[in-house]
Records
---
Amino acid sequence: MISQMEAALESVNWSGVQTYWPLAFLPVITFVTAWLVYKLISFFFFPLHVVDARAAKEEAFQNNSIPEYLSKAADQRLFKDISGDLPPPYPNGWFRVIHSNELPKAVVKGIEWNGMHVVAWRKKDGEAVVMEGHCPHMGALLAGGEVASSGSSSSSSGGGGGGDCVECPFHGWQFDCTGTLVRIPYESKVPSHLQKAPLLKVFETREVNGAVFAWHHAEGIPPSYEPLTFFTKAQVDSGKIKFHGRFKNVINTHIQEIAENGADFAHLNHLHAHCVLEALHKVGCRHQWKADFLPQPKPNEHIVKIDVYEYLMWRGRHIPFADQTAHITQDTLGAVHLEFWTPLGPIHVYHTNMVVQPMVLSVHFSVFAGRWVPRFVAKFFLDSIRKQVARDIPVWDLKKFVNTPLVVQHDGPIKHYRRWAQQFYTQSSADVAAARSDQLDW
């Protein structure tokens, strides 16, 4: 039997098989080539979009993917030591509700914002509206509803064209952009006692720097200043300023801790000395940092400017022409603008903080750039910042707020920063314990 098999094998013409053996690897080669092409196209032509696991829950809620939202962990907060004197969880000021490119017309988006559910939507003219998120009738979440024209059902308004009213998904009650009830579909008219005043609170909103902001104040005081505008929606829509990507994190910390990084100069040369590019670090390169903290005089006392200088060092020697300067503007505790200049135009990294609930913070970084800045350059800046922020997150998640830190001479102007931050809290600002007990108050 064995001799017959050997004879059969010897009779095979192996030359043809040897000629075409590479064809067996053709599917693998094709797959790898297609994957590389996809990665190159994504890198050069598509915006960066990175969402961490905790921020995915936030994004699912915003996109009305309620089953996905509920399927996430019921409580994704880490254990947090909140002993000691914590600042109030919800400071006063302008805070991001939603990004402009995430709020199309004819869609009602739900957001967890400053310890409450709010909804955001656009009127026919494109203006953004932010209001309380629960229908006063029976408490349904309005985020599952529709945008409709006043006095008509969402289905009869054409769907997709938008309108100036939001419709409750539970019973179809409609509220206009002032929060006033304008239609009950199964009643001939709205009872007069329900029209005496708006039934839903509508927040002051501004749309700047690629995001919709709403005003929060514990005393109910109207805005005393405007959010700083570094570029407008019109500039983005016209292409003068282009969006190149965003990364999102949810962090278990107090909002004041995030902004304090800008005043904590000493941590820069310890936690952030390691080069973002690992190959540079392996040959002996390190980052070295210096910074200037510049509080602004009245009427701009809610603003702090910080100039951060980054130097690339090799075995203790400064490498020329590799320096980078970031001009940072801290606008209250809710927004930070980082501006980098390149020969082809400016790069804007816009960092926004928003309190979801006590010690749960939504932190987003978006990158925009001038018309002629290549996408891969803007994405490189954003990804470098993402990797640096990733070093801070474990510290923020697990650190305890120390009310009286043991500050030494070269730590940086931390005490100056904390005095500056006090202006965003007022008498009615709840402390963390009270805010948490309110959520459990039946």
Note: Confidence is low (pLDDT under 50) at residues 155-161.
---
Amino acid sequence: MSLGTFLGLDKLQKFMRMIKNHGGIKNSLYHLYLTDDLKEGKLVGEDKFGNKYYENPQYFYGRSRWVVYNPKHNVDYDGSMVPAEWFGWLHYKTDMSPIDKPPVKYDWMPEHTQNTSGTKEAYMPFTTTKPKIEAWTPPKK
């Protein structure tokens, strides 16, 4: 073990390389604010929504693939913004990314949409049956 490794200079060197790869201190802090994580990895691809997918096999299995969401969402992103073709690669169902092996596209398959629960566009079913109980309204005095 060298003296630099013993003193932790290799960790400092890796940290400085990550800051450089993210575009400097300001962009690194912004990326840290958005994702709560600073990682370095190889850009595997980008989907049609602007999400970028990275991989670094030096990290632990299960943590070696990640997505950086489109910056237009700021911190208001969720997992439903990942299309199905990238979901499989991201969760290790396949080692072939959609760039390497494009997914099969049939006419009956709908386009990917994000989850709209909790928004005005959320699906709200309505009933066509008569309610079994009636709401009570207090008598006016």
Note: The first helix runs from residue 3 to 7.
